[in-house]
Every structure is written in C-alpha cells, then in structure tokens.
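Fig. S4 source data, part A: sequence.
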Amino acid sequence: LLKGLVWSSSDEEVVSVDENGNVTGLKAGKAVVSVSNAAGVYAECTVTVAADEPADDISVALLEYAIELAGKVNMDGVVDAVKENFDNALQTAKDVLARVQSGDPTVTQNEVDSAWRNLIKAIQYGEFKAGDKTELEKVIVLAEQMYSQLDKYLEAGKAEFVAALDNAKDVYADGNAFQEDVDTAWKQLMDAMANLRLIPNKDLLEDLINQAESLDKEDYEEDGFDEMLDALEDAKDVFADAEANQDEVDAAAAALKAALGKLVASNDGAAQGSSNQSTVTKATKTGDTVNVFPIAAGMVLAAGAAAAAVTVRRKKK
C-alpha cells in the first residue's frame, strides 16, 4: 500500500516536499502537504512556517526614517529621470524593510544601509525641477510660421535657423530639460530668427541702373560722370548678389541716385539735351524719382547757345 507515493504542497513558495516526504519551510506562512498513491491511499496535513526573528545586528532605524521622509517629499515638476530614480529608490527601501521584518536571513546590514542612502540621495535630487517651457513654446510656434515661408528668405542663416528650431523642439519634448537648457534653446532660436533676412525688392535699383546705363558720357562733365560710373558698378554688384539684403540694396540705390543727381551737362553735349531727356524719361516708371537737373541744365545751355546765335546775326544786319 505504501508503494508509489506522490507528495505535493499546496503552496511551494511556503513549503516544499520531496519524493521521500521531506518537508522544507521556505518562508513564513501555511501550506497543505498531501500524499497519495494509485491504491487509494491519501493523507494530508497543514504545515505552518513561522517567521524568523530579525537578526539582532540588523538595524533598520535609518531605513524607516528615510521611508518616512520620502513620504513627505513633493516630486511634482521635477525632471523625469529624477522622479523615476526616486520611485525606484523608495520601492527598493520598502522591499528591503519588508524582508527584514519577515525574517529573511539573507538580508545584510550593508543592503539595508545602501537602501536608505540611495533613498536620501534621491530625495535631495528633488530640487532639480523641470524648466518652464512657456516662452519656448511661443517662440517655436512663431518660428514654425517663418519656416513655412522659408523660401522668402535669403540662404544666409537658413541652416542655422533650421538647426536652432530642431534643437528647440527637442528641448521642449525632453522631460529632463532643466531651466538652463530651456533658456539656451530659446535664445539660440531667437537669434537665428533675427538673423534671417527677406529676399530684397530690387526693382528701384534695377530702374536706376537702367537709367544710368542709358546716359552718354560725352553729354556730361567728366568728374561727375566718373563718380556716377563708380556708383553704377557698385549698384550692379549688389544687384547681382543673391545674398544682398534689403539694407544693402537700398544703400546702393541711394548712392546711385545721388550720383545721377550730381551730373552736370557738358557744353559739347548741350545740343543733345532734348534727346537725353527722351532717353532718361523713357527709363523711368510710375512712382520712381528721377533727378532732372542734368536734363534741365542741358536744355538751358542749348537755349543759351541758340540765343547767342540770333544776337550775332542781328548785329551783322
């Protein structure tokens, strides 16, 4: 009848039993140990495993204090990594304390001390609050509006702007970003936005260049015309420069306009004043400002020459 016995435990985490019926207590608790065989033999008993008394040399006072202190800490607003570290340290401390209280003989004083030290450090890191990203968010929205119209801006500064915008987005999404990180990203993006320049309007500069190129050097005094040619060359360089900004375009246009205004018709070219007037006027457009002094001067000189000729003829009569 005692052959082929099968032993079992209702809770093998509390009590284990081998094929010979040897029972081993694993942790505090109760379990039913039973035995049976094919002949119909069956028996069972309840085994109670008592908790061991904690070792006299294990002190948990500091561990209990650290756990109590952690319960009073406010981790709202801290960076994600700090919050995660705190939660893990607190859970570990609670687990170690529970093992000591349950009589786990494998717990050492070093393990207890390590648990409370790590928890205290995690509590101290609670000062590392996440950065306020309110202003960074506003600037990102504005920058994205500029990004949607990036083709309207000069190439210079575009790459830096895109990099600053990408970095700002990364910082905004980073749960571990401190205030210094947020402030730096905000400043870099603002600077990059400020450095962008719209593609300038060169219509006025083009008109002035056309006017200047239509003039004949023989019709004007040499010094003034040479000065105008210098301004014309500068204007053409700016006009051809794909990276010239609006300030540079406006400055070149103003310089060329001023040089045109200083032109003085020469005596040799006075008779051609009317043709010069026609040439310059043809180059202007609605809304443009053209200095007519050179034209008027030519007309005056031409009229004076004609009057002188009439006077001479009258004297001969």
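Fig. S4 source data, part B ends here. The longest strand covers residues 29-36.
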